Amino acid sequence: MHRTDLLQKLDAYQNERPDEAAVAQRLIDFVSANADCFERHLKIGHVTGSAWVVNQAGTHVLLTHHKKLNMWLQLGGHADGNSDILGAATREAIEESGLAGLKPVSTDIFDIDIHLIPERKSEPAHNHHDIRFAFQALETEEYVVSDESHDLAWAEIQSLEKYTTEESMLRMASKWLDR
C-alpha cells in the first residue's frame, strides 16, 4: 500500500507529539480515506511536502516569499503522485532554492499542518495536508530564486516574526530552537 510509510510516520509523530494529536489524527483519517491523497486532482485537498531548511550553523531558515500566496513560508509543494513525501519535500526544496547538498536532519516528520488554500481561477479552495521535514544546507547557502517566488531569504530563526507571524511558521521555529 503506497500510503503505509506516511501512515506509520504520522502514527509515530502523533505518539511523540500528544499536543498535536488532533491534527495528526485528521491527517491520518484523510490519508486513510483517500487512495489518491498524493494527487493534485483531489479537489478537497492533497498531501504536500515541505522543507524547513536551515543553514550549516542551524541559526537561519531559508524562506520563500511565495508568489501565489504573497507570504513568507518554508519551501515545499505538491507531491504530484509521489507517496515518498520526504522525497517530494526534497525535490521541492531543491527546485525552489537551487541549493545543492541538502541533507535531511531526520527521516522523521518535523511538523504537520493542514491549511486552506484560497480559490484561484479555476481551482476551488482546498486543503493542503502538509508534511514537513527538517533539512540542513551543508554544501552552500547560495540560492537561486525560482519563478514560484518573489524572493528567498535566510531569516534568523530567533527573529522569524520579522518575516511572518503565521502560527505554523513560529511553531516550527520554536521546535527547531527547542530541539
UniProtKB/TrEMBL annotation:
Residues 44-178 form the Nudix hydrolase domain. Signal peptide: none annotated. Gene3D superfamilies: Nucleoside Triphosphate Pyrophosphohydrolase. InterPro entries: NUDIX_hydrolase-like_dom_sf, NUDIX_hydrolase_dom. It comes from the Bacteria. CDD domains: NUDIX_Hydrolase. It holds the Pfam family NUDIX. SUPFAM superfamilies: Nudix. PANTHER family: ADP-RIBOSE PYROPHOSPHATASE, DIHYDRONEOPTERIN TRIPHOSPHATE DIPHOSPHATASE. This is Nudix hydrolase domain-containing protein.
